[in-house]
Amino acid sequence: HGREAPDYLAGLNPEQRDAVETLEGPVLVLAGAGTGKTRVLTTRIAHILSSGRAFPSQILAVTFTNKAAREMKDRIARLVGGAVEGMPWLGTFHSIGVKLLRRHGELAGLSSDFTILDTDDVVRLIKQIIQAEGLDDKRWPAKQFAGMIDGWKNKGLGPADIPEGDARAFANGKGRELYAAYQARLKSLNACDFGDLLMHPISIFKRNPDLLKEYHRRFRYILVDEYQDTNTAQYIWLRLLAQRPQGEPQNVCCVGDDDQSIYGWRGAEVDNILRFEKDFPGAKVVRLERNYRSTEHILGAASHLITHNEGRLGKTLFTDRRDPDDEKVQVHAAWDSEEEARAVGEEIEQLQRQEHNLNGIAILVRASFQMREFEDRFVTLGLNYRVVGGPRFYERLEIRDAMAYFRLVCQPADDLAFERIINTPKRGLGDTSVRALHDYARARDMPMLAAADDIVNSDELKPKARKALTDVVTDFRRWQSLLENTPHTDLAEQILEESGYTDMWKNDKSAEAPGRLENLKELIRSMESFESMRGFLEHVSLVMDAEQNEDMEAVSIMTLHSAKGLEFDTVFLPGWEEGLFPHQRSLDEGGRAGLEEERRLAYVGITRAKRRCHIWFVSNRRIHGLWQSTLPSRFLDELPAAHVDVAMPETSYGGYGRGGYGQSRFDKADPFANTYSTPGWKRAQENRNDATRNNWGNRSGHAVERVGYGESGPRSRTIEGE
Ligand code: ATP
Ligand code: MG
Prior knowledge:
Blueprint (H helix, E strand, L loop, with lengths): L6 H4 L3 H8 L5 E4 L6 H14 L8 E4 L3 H15 L9 E2 L1 H12 L10 E2 L2 H14 L9 H13 L9 H5 L6 H14 L2 E2 L3 H12 L1 H10 L2 E4 L7 H11 L9 E5 L14 H4 L1 H4 L4 E3 L9 H11 L22 E6 L2 H17 L7 E5 L5 H11 L3 E3 L9 H14 L4 H7 L9 H14 L3 H8 L7 H20 L5 H11 L2 H6 L6 H15 L5 H13 L9 E5 L8 E6 L10 H23 L2 E10 L1 E4 L2 E4 L4 H4 L6 E4 L13 H7 L13 H16 L7 E3 L10 E3 L3
The structure holds adenosine-5'-triphosphate and magnesium ion.
């Protein structure tokens, strides 16, 4: 290869260049946010290709999301100046797993046209298996067991490998049997679940050393981005492919940042990154310390915040981006989330007037229910936005279900709504009954709800279905009669309670269920600003009609989790309140480790910003018509004063300035600072809440309830008004 450095190497700093040019042997790039880790990987691939060391098909490159994979392909093409002829092995662990299984599935008993089951399919299947065992599936919910299986698969454990205690924990010790039965059933269906996309290749490689050897020869270079968030199964998979017998080249390059490990709750093991040097003796470890992304203030704020975590490797970061015009990280207070959304909307409009591109602006939320307020506001303003990494608020499954109930109450002829909810939650109305009802309605040209009212008096249905349908009809009649005279938010809540819909999610043990319950609460809240249920439904149809076009210039709204690896000129971080961020659930379930993961998430959030980072907290959330006062996030206390501006609201609400935020929380030493990292942090936090309550609680004179966002609704405490 040529002596003169190709263009793509010219812009790199010496450490980056070292990481790119050390193509032989294992390399670990361990470095903070924005230091160019992903850029190193991309450039490395370009270098491998254009120096002719390997064909595109000989490179295995793993990204965290499909979107990141697409971007990486585009960038490589730009670097090597021309289209890259495919990169078949560049993708996520899952997409690469699918590809391997399509080729070698028969070695795991699958034919190449196997199907991949989604979560709903999986739960249905497990339920059948639980019932077939003669177990009560109410006592031993399928969803819960599906979650356990997923957890085992994340750890790379098959039925034979699961720990005794785990196996005992479900169905009186039948956990292992059920797991094995589930795997057998999958095989007979020629199907696999997501976990299998890793598990099967692992066992195929373990049982077929010759095949593994073939892949060792094929993959001359292996690269992994976001290595800190690999789970055990991914780690095992990777080690099988990357660890070669003595004397064979081990050209593996992993990049990551222990401070950005944010998927522990899904089984990611940050230890994998720490083990790299043991797994690959002689590995070259490259540290990158120069951040190219953010201003000094943004970097300073994030770096200081993360020092509050104990379990970390620690690293230095600096930036040359120092401009006297750079603003500090802004902390803003708002009265409630409506004001928060309004103010953020105004700021964005102002940026727009200054000709900032909307594509460079992002709103990163901790919990998806927070998106709703922003989406509504942006629709009102006519501001383009896109929701990244998930459906828009009103498109979510649970929101559509709930809306179907509301629609049917307001418009009894809405058959689509009827069909959506008739057996959600399960009422024992199977496909046959619904089809009979459908035919009955069609024959008489009447809406299904009316037909249901009719058909229950005939003998077209089995008694059980008739009873279930009678109950549904009675429910809807009652709700319709309440439509005019009951406050519509109360009615909405009543509908979700009485229909059993809320309970359905409360009984659901999947990881998504708590978030869905939060979204349902937010849905009710969002109705408050409308006069009637009908008015609200109209509004939603307008929101849903708003265009979402990939190409248009738009503000991005997404969760902090899906913002990993991305960057924006301006980042808004709303909802920095105790209970929301850090999230109560993480604290309750994860203790100190949970808190540290939340803090890493805050670090990820701040470091997405290039030029502007605006953090918001609200002091009140109005839920169920009650003012609930929230405490500002402890993470705000952990930001360094030198890099942060606290903006005082100019509103007349009073309070903020007086005992105030800026004064007591940044200028004076916080008596409880640093106590969180001691084992007694939880107690310290309690004390602190007590100490802070007088400053923050109860400004409105209403009864004040502190709110958390736990699984079973707000974990709240009522504090009487002064
Ligand atoms: P994260 O930890 O957030 O994933 P990262 O370490 O992967 O960050 P990159 O996304 O690769 O960082 O780089 C951050 C930004 O800095 C990008 O805009 C990238 O183009 C830019 N950058 C990286 N290295 C250089 C360099 N040597 N010269 C100029 N810009 C650079
Ligand atoms: Mg990156």
